[in-house]
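Mods, move this if it's the wrong board.
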Amino acid sequence: MKSFYLFDTNIISEIRKPNPNPNVVKLFMEKKDFADISSITWAESLAGLKRMPEGKKKEALSAYYNEIIHEQFDIVPFDEHAATVYSDLYPRLEEIGKIPQDFDLQIASIAIANNMILVTRNTKDFEHIANVSNLMMENWFED
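Not the wrong board. Structure tokens:
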């Protein structure tokens, strides 16, 4: 089945918090079967995990990523199509002086290439990309 949503890193990390945003939890539970994560989000998550000191927190987070996130969601790659989208967006953003961070542009390119809605708390980080493309976004932290 084709997924409609692409979860940003802040969505999968929110669910694990002791007091997660109730709206994010509600929508996550309702729509998780129609969602994936990007290879960039997976890389960010693993890099954060590997920077943590050894201990119970790291073990629990490792289990969450490997036994829940990796098992529940497909990882959508930054592939040739996404790279082409990226290469189209970069000069448009450069022209208006709004170059985003590479990871953000890669995540947005994956969402656009796969016609997915990017679910993120950081809509401001992607605003300029949306202004020059057909990037669709939702912020589940807002009611």
